Structure formats: structure tokens, C-alpha cells
Amino acid sequence: MADMIAEFGKSKEAIFKKNRVFPGVNNLKNHLTRVLARIDYSLYLYLCIMRKLRMDELPRKSADEFRSAEKLPVILLLENIRSMHNVGSVFRTADAFLAQRIFLCGYTPKPPHRDIHKTALGATETVEWEHRDSAVNAVRQLRDSGYRTVAVEQAEGSIPLQSFSRQAGERMVLIFGNEVEGVSEEVLAHCDNCIEIPQYGMKHSLNVSVAAGIVLWELVRRGF
């Protein structure tokens, strides 16, 4: 009994090494060590692969770098958008994909306004924009300047987004309409094409800022 008490008083390592006293413990320890090593390594890989990047680790451009960067040859034209939050979100999307400019037409709200800034998150300071009273006149002017005018709208003869193509070096205006009425008939009359985002549910309606993000990403993805 004294010998057993002395054994328990020793360190764990000493006990594990005494195979003759605890014949199965050493094997168990080795097995657990291997299991824990695999768990630790898996956790290490998970943390390395899935770790969320900090803001200072993102390849973010400064405002000056953004202004001097080569832009996507695309202008976004917003016709009579009601929501300031939607406008701010479009600014943020335009910043993400280096769009050339935004035209805010009709009663579309324009910066500065806190509700626009709330969703733009500073993109109104990087993306160039201008306001026009008439969307029709703006579209006509851009078309005369050599831009291909494309409405994002559900219309007769519209082209599914995945089938839409462009010529090399072509400049384009993407036109997004009011949240309820869409692109006006007057503006459609001056458009070269309509593109439509395929939808498979009941509503067949997308938020305008979501639609802008989908179309821009598809153009960028295909090497616009």
C-alpha cells in the first residue's frame, strides 16, 4: 500500500512511464496524444483558412488611389429613385467595382445627406457623380457621346443578363428606374438595349441596389 501511495505522489509523466504498474495507461496516453494533435492541427488549419480579415488587411485603395485607378467604362444612371438608402447602396456598389460615374436624375436624392451616407459608407467621396433634372436628356446626351445605353428592365425583347455581350472597348450606360415604376417609357425610347436579370420566384422584383450589384458583378466577372 505504501508503494502505491508513493506512485500516486509522483508526477503524471512518471506514472505514465511505469508500464509495469499501470500496463494500459501508457498506450492510452499515446493514443490521446495523437488524437489531440490531430484536433489541434485541424483547429489550426480552420483558424488559418477561415479567419476573418481585419479592415487593415484588406487591399483597400485610398481616395487618391481610387480617383487615379482605371475605371470600368460604365456609367450608372438612376432615374427617379426614391430611397436615399438605395442611392447610398448604389454608390457603395459603384465604388466596389470601380464604376466610372453615377448620374442622379429627376428627383433621385443626391449627396450630401446623412441617409445616403449611412449606406454609402464614404463612397460619395470616391465615386464621381452629377445630377441631371431630366433622365431623358441625360440618356440622349450620353448616347450621342458614343455610349451604349442599356436599361435594366423587364421589357419585350429584353436580353437575359447571362446572354448579354459587348464589343471590346465599348462604353456603356446602365439605367435603373424607380423602385415601383421602373425605367420610364420615355427613357426606354432612347435605349439601345434592355437587359433582364432572370428570376424564378413569385415577385419578379429586385431592389434597385441589389440589381445594380448583380449586373455590375456579372460584367466584371466576364472581363468587361
Describe the structure.
The chain is an alpha/beta fold and 224 residues long. It is built from 9 helices and 7 strands; from the N terminus they run H-H-H-H-E-H-E-H-E-H-E-E-E-H-E-H. The chain has 2 domains: 49 residues, no CATH class; 159 residues, Alpha/beta knot (3-Layer(aba) Sandwich). It has a 7-stranded parallel β-sheet with strand order 3-2-1-6-4-7-5, sandwiched between helices. The longest helix is centred in the N-terminal third of the chain and has 26 residues. The radius of gyration is 30 Å and the shape is elongated. The N terminus is likely disordered.
Structural class: alpha/beta
CATH-level-4 superfamily name of the largest domain: SPOUT methyltransferase, trefoil knot domain
Share in β-strands: 15-25%
Give the H and E element order. Answer: HHHHEHEHEHEEEHEH
Strand order of the largest sheet: 3-2-1-6-4-7-5
Number of separate structural domains? 2
The DSSP helix count reads 9
